[in-house]
C-alpha cells in the first residue's frame, strides 16, 4: 500500500524523534536500526524507505530543526531582555535536571565523542548547531563570536563532565562553576585582548 507524501513525512519525523531518544540514551554506536524502529513503533524493514543509512539518520537527527536543543526551547517572553534570555539559557542548560535526563536534552553533550569519530555529514550537522547557538548568544549578549563559541563549549563540556563523575555533589559543583564562569564572561563588556604571540606549549595528550 502506497502512502501520500504527508504520511511519509510524518513517519520520517517519528523515526527522527525515536533516534534522538535512543542515541542519547544508549549512544549512537550501541544502537542499531532495529532499536530505533522499535522505539518508533515501526518495523525495521521500513527504515530504508526514509534513510539511506544509519549515519544518514544520525546527521538528520542532529540537524537543528530535529535536534531542538534547549536554547530553542527557552520560553518566548515579550518582557524578557536579551541578557535575561542568555541567563535563562545558562540556568536551563547547566542544570541538574538536564544532567539527569540526557534522552530529553541537547544531543551535543550526550553524543559529542561519537560525533568526533563520525563522517562529514554528521560533523556538518553538529557544526550547524554549535554555530547557531553561538550566534544566538552573541546577538543576545554582545561581545565577539569567539566568546560566544567559548560559552557553548563550556556548556557542552561542563555538562558532559558533570554527567560522567560518580559523585553527584561534585557534578553539582561543576555545573555551578561553569554557570558562574559563563556569567562572569558575559559581565565583561569587552573581550580580553589577545596576545600577539602565544607561548608554544608541548602537547600533553
Q: What's this model, at a glance?
A:
The chain is mainly α and 205 residues long. It is built from ten helices and no strands.
How does this structure look, described?
- InterPro entries: Homeodomain-like_sf, HTH_TetR, Tet_transcr_reg_TetR-rel_C_sf.
- One of its GO terms (molecular function) is DNA binding.
- Helix 1 packs across helix 2, helix 5 (about 80-95) packs across helix 8 and helix 9 packs antiparallel against helix 10 (about 170-185).
- About 65% of the residues lie in helices and about 0% in strands.
- The protein has two domains: about 5-55, Arc Repressor Mutant, subunit A, CATH 1.10.10.60; about 65-185, Orthogonal Bundle (Tetracycline Repressor, domain 2).
- The protein is built from ten helices and no strands.
Number of separate structural domains: 2
The largest sheet is:
none
Shape: globular
Strand content: under 5%
Second rung of CATH, namely the architecture of the largest domain: Orthogonal Bundle
Structural class given helices, strands, pairing? Answer: mainly alpha
